[in-house]
Amino acid sequence: MRPDEGLDHPFAGDLNWLLHRVGAVLGSAQDEVARRHGLGIRGYVVLRTIAQSEGSSQLALGRDLGLDKTTLTAVLDRLEEAGLILRRPAPGDRRARVCEATAEGREVAGKAAEEIEATEQRLLAEMRPRDRDELVRLLRQLAFGPFADTAPISGSCI
């Protein structure tokens, strides 16, 4: 890429547009990777979260990932039908469901995670390592900064 590429775009200086554009570009590339594993990006994010935090309730998953109940249930149904997760009644509250990854689910999540990480590395390949670290630090500062409470996680970005 040329250093001046994109500078003539009408929103080249608009932070909101740029952040959404980067999210769309990366999300599309990662969705393609997740689909190769039979998941799609939502399925990947949900499966990986379950695999990393066994025993999460559906309610907690939805809250943590910003997925509404209907969307999350549809994703969980697909993951369960594929044999990647199990849902069981929660101890002490039979109305609540706890999600667990199967051995196959953990394997699929791990393989997909490696390829997803590779897409991030390709996106950042032209940046110096210290610039990559600084980008992540700055994005984290913005994501959890002064307006964090004005936009709680709801409605998914995935």
Description:
The chain is mainly α. It has a domain at 40-145: Winged helix-like DNA-binding domain superfamily/Winged helix DNA-binding domain (Arc Repressor Mutant, subunit A, Orthogonal Bundle). The chain is 58% helix and 11% strand. The protein has 6 helices and 3 strands, in the order ααβααββαα. The protein has helices at residues 15-36, 40-52, 58-65, 69-81, 103-123, 129-143; strands at 56-57, 85-90, 93-101. It has a 3-stranded antiparallel β-sheet with strand order 1-3-2. A hairpin with a 2-residue loop joins strand 2 and strand 3. It is globular, with a radius of gyration of 18 Å. The mean pLDDT is 89.
Summarize the structure.
It is built from 6 helices and 3 strands; from the N terminus they run H-H-E-H-H-E-E-H-H. With 158 residues, the chain is mainly α. A 3-stranded antiparallel β-sheet has the order 1-3-2.
Output the structural class: mainly alpha
Q: What is the distance, rounded to the nearest whole angstrom, between the alpha carbons of the first and last residues?
A: 27 Å
Strand content: 5-15%
Q: What composes the largest sheet?
A: 3 strands, antiparallel
CATH architecture assignment name of the domain at 40-145: Orthogonal Bundle
Q: Please, how many helices?
A: 6
* Dominant shape: globular
Q: Give me the strand/helix succession.
A: HHEHHEEHH
What's the CATH topology name of the domain at 40-145?
Arc Repressor Mutant, subunit A
Helix content: 55-70%
CATH homology-level superfamily of the domain at 40-145: Winged helix-like DNA-binding domain superfamily/Winged helix DNA-binding domain
Mean pLDDT: 89
By DSSP, the count of extended strands is 3
Radius of gyration, in Å, reads 18 Å
What's the CATH class label of the domain at 40-145? Mainly Alpha
**Low-confidence spans: pLDDT under 50, at least 5 residues?**
none
Q: Strand order, main sheet: write it out.
A: 1-3-2
